[in-house]
Write a structure and sequence with these properties.
Strand order of the largest sheet of chain A: 6-5-7-8-9-12-13
Largest interface: A-B, 55 and 54 residues
Shape of chain B: globular
Distance between the termini of chain A: 51 Å
Number of helices of chain B: 15
Number of strands of chain B: 4
Oligomer: heterodimer
Mean pLDDT of chain B: 89
Strand content of chain A: 5-15%
């Protein structure tokens, strides 16, 4: 108890925070732990894009952006600590890059009136803006990803996967379990057999799962992994000589560091995606000029153009565009979190805007609305070429099965609304 | 100067056996209680409650629970994380099944359920001890986490396998959920901590506690002088499980609000609480507080110093934290194997003689 008193004194010193003149974008990153391989490039991309805006444009709408980085280690307790310590400093938006932390923050941000953007992860049914007023997961969510995988397999098999065996190897956590419901529904619809194989945190132990895959001989393997689990899975697949063309991961299982350890044997591995890959976009020239060459790059500065770096940059771009929209709506440069939420709900991303930002054809066009916080859910497919060590987009961004997904979202968000007494807010 | 026995006369058995025999200690104890109950609730904000005070209070309860088992009864346990998970899931099932019942009752019932589970896993302790018992409780840790991940009934068949604490109140004051005021969650946990500490302190200096300590010091000798090992060991497991269950329930319902069993109650949690007990001091209630405060505050202090004051990159600070905590554990075990409680005890001894050591 004595300790609490000393900490109280220490806190008084901390409470006197910085002045709230900048637009604050907290970055709940993780550069340590078993998921750091994915956390580092994402956070670098997120930081670098805001640095670019500050250096090149003098901020967003004339107001400089400030990124406060806080290390979570993918740990929910530290995530809560980071959220509480940054929210008082004028935080506009949270993007924790962790489904576990997202679940912690959903009720908290709603109570604190701060928007939460979980792009391609988090709680899928948060796409229903009628129930989740402060949570956004545009442009695509897990269920779009699962449906995108199935659509791709349909296409590759001439529209018929009846009787095929598909194994799902997934991270045994909230994140990994998200697609199961959708895949079950889709298996009923399309007549394929689904085998679900959980892998426990952090994912190095997968021998028995791959033995089972070898025994069952599925036609395709789908992976829902993150961090060290991806590398191990791809290596194990190579070890049992599973054909890589038939192995397809979600977007969190398809970056350079996932396939590199397996070397040439990973050639042909696929992953779905909701944005483009590579560094063949004008914005990267600007990043090189204003950020990397100026010595202002986040981290080691060696991740530019990697899949997850691009995703981090894309996340930052969507946040910055939402901030601009909010500034237009409210006619002030100095927006707060509530205004930011309005900006996110009115966000319009079209090809002209993307081209102007130096990212032509980088991601899908979409509009966010009051009842749809999930975007259009367009999914593309990428493939790894081990020789040139590059990912390339091998299909367009195509729609997912909204009929199945829409019903599931309705069902899950309805259950959440009933549990928490939430009334629909959109007229 | 502060600690003096001159003029502190004891005229009854009650005086002689009180917890704080020195007047200064007694006064300090009441002052701390008064501050904790009377002043902090008016000052506390979200950051202080959620980032520092709640984890400190909740881990203190867990550390007291584990200390009873390891420190007082000598039964090594690595299953704390699993038992906290039992408390959390019991509380979740009760909260969703009986929404109108007060949170106080849910948390206490969750503790009771954990006590039963803990006793079941304590049964092997009658035959095995030391390392072998540690392995048996380790099995409990992995089994329980696997169970809560495997059986959908425990998480009410939710799609993600997570459990979320809905809004629940006690006496009309919200305790769980995002709209619960910081002072209410703080006071709620503080009441449980005070209750647990008082119960633990009074148990450990009575018959039950003495039989635990007899078993710890030498089980065969204890049996010869008439201590029933079955009763002593199982009561230790039950009481320890009760406290750990309470801490697990509070950890889930009041502090985090949503929990993923593998992540929140993994083996790391067992080690963390064990480190708290070892660093704080085995067989000491104060040690449980000191250990919990140390391991909850140290990362926050290091982060504030490293990132906010010195401006170092967050990953370097996070790595440094591992190094510093690890080094401190080693140093502590070498320099003061009895933990911080012993440091405090020695300091008190010195203060009692100061400034005239002879």
């Amino acid at each position: 108890m004595k300790k609490t008193l000393t900490t109280l004194a220490l806190g008084a010193a901390m409470a006197a925070g910085p002045a709230m003149a900048d637009l604050v974008f907290p970055d709940l990153s993780y550069r340590t732990g078993p998921y750091a391989a994915g956390g580092i490039p994402f956070s670098d991309g997120y930081n670098d894009y805001f640095t670019l805006l500050n250096e090149r444009d003098g901020g967003i709408g004339g107001v400089p952006a400030k990124v406060i980085e806080c290390e979570t280690g993918y740990n929910t307790e530290k995530g809560v600590e980071c959220y509480e310590s940054t929210k008082g400093q004028g935080a506009l938006i949270y993007q924790p890059l962790s489904t576990g932390i997202t679940y912690q923050l959903i009720p908290k941000v709603t109570a604190d009136n701060i928007p939460l953007h979980t792009m391609g992860y988090g709680r899928t049914s948060a796409a229903n803006g009628e129930v989740f007023s402060h949570v956004f997961n545009y442009p695509a969510n897990y269920w779009n990803g699962a449906s995108g995988v199935v659509n791709y397999l349909l296409e590759a098999n001439g529209g018929d996967i009846n009787g095929k065996k598909i194994a799902l190897i997934y991270h045994n956590s909230a994140y990994g379990k998200e697609p199961i419901r959708t895949l079950e529904e889709l298996s009923k619809k399309h007549g394929f057999e689904l085998i679900a194989l959980p892998v426990d945190h952090p994912g190095q132990e997968q021998k028995s799962q791959w033995l089972q895959i070898r025994r069952e001989r599925p036609d395709n393997v789908v992976m829902w992994g993150w961090g060290v689990m991806n590398q191990v899975a791809i290596q194990e697949a190579a070890n049992i000589r599973f054909p890589m063309e038939n192995f397809i991961g979600v977007w969190w299982s398809g970056a350079e560091h996932d396939v590199m350890p397996a070397g040439d044997k990973a050639d042909g591995y696929k992953a779905v995606t909701f944005h483009n890959v590579g560094r063949d976009f004008p914005v990267f020239d600007d990043i090189q000029k204003y950020v990397v060459d100026a010595g202002k790059a986040a981290g080691a500065g060696d991740q530019v153009g990697n899949v997850l770096y691009n995703r981090g940059m894309y996340a930052a771009m969507l946040a910055a565009e939402a901030a601009k929209t909010a500034q237009e709506i409210h006619g002030t440069g100095d927006i707060d979190a509530a205004m930011m939420r309005d900006g996110m709900e009115a966000l319009v991303i079209d090809e002209a805007k993307m081209a102007a930002l130096g990212m032509p054809n980088f991601g899908p066009s979409f509009n966010v609305s009051c009842d749809n916080h999930g975007g259009p859910g367009l999914v593309g497919v990428t493939q790894w070429d081990a020789e040139s060590k590059t990912w390339s987009l091998i299909s367009d961004f195509k729609p997912s099965d909204t009929e199945v997904i829409g019903k599931l979202i309705e069902e899950d968000s309805g259950a959440y609304a009933a549990e928490n007494n939430i009334e629909s807010r959109c007229k | 100067m502060f600690y003096r026995e001159a003029g502190d006369f004891k005229t009854s058995y009650a005086d002689d056996s009180q917890t704080f025999p020195i007047k200064f200690d007694r006064v300090r104890y009441y002052v701390v209680l008064a501050v904790a109950f009377g002043i902090i609730p008016f000052l506390v904000n979200d950051y202080w409650a959620n980032a520092i005070l709640l984890p400190f209070l909740i881990y203190s309860i867990a550390a007291i629970g584990l200390n009873i088992l390891v420190g007082y009864c000598g039964q090594v346990s690595l299953g704390t994380g699993g038992f906290m998970a039992v408390g959390a899931y019991a509380c979740y099932k009760l909260m969703t099944a009986f929404p109108e019942v007060s949170m106080f009752i849910h948390v206490i019932l969750a503790g009771g359920i954990t006590a039963v589970v803990c006793m079941a896993f304590g049964l092997p302790s009658l035959r095995i001890k030391g390392f072998y018992l540690a392995v048996a409780t380790l099995a409990a840790q992995f089994f329980l986490v696997w169970l809560f991940n495997r059986v959908p009934w425990f998480y009410n068949y939710s799609a993600s396998g997570q459990i979320n604490a809905p809004e629940r109140d006690t006496f009309g004051i919200l305790i769980t959920g995002p709209n619960a005021p910081a002072w209410a969650t703080y006071l709620f946990c503080l009441i449980f901590l005070t209750f647990c500490a008082l119960v633990a302190r009074n148990l450990t200096r009575g018959t039950v506690g003495r039989s635990w300590m007899a078993i710890r010091d030498m089980d065969i000798a204890a049996e010869i002088i008439g201590v029933n090992p079955l009763k002593a060991k199982l009561t230790a497991f039950a009481v320890s499980g009760f406290f750990i269950g309470i801490s697990g329930a509070l950890f889930f319902a009041v502090y985090l609000g949503a929990v993923e069993v593998g992540e929140a109650f993994g083996i790391n949690k067992s080690f963390l609480v064990l480190f708290m007990v070892i660093l704080g001091g085995l067989g000491s209630i104060f040690g449980s507080f000191a250990g919990a405060a140390f391991l909850v505050l140290l990362p926050v202090v290091l982060k504030v110093v490293g990132v906010d004051l010195l401006g170092w990159p967050t990953d370097i600070v996070a790595h440094f934290q591992l190094v510093i905590v690890g080094a401190l554990i080693v140093v502590f075990l070498i320099a003061e194997p009895h933990g911080m409680a012993q440091l405090w005890r020695v300091a008190k001894e010195k203060l009692r003689l100061w400034p005239f050591p002879h």
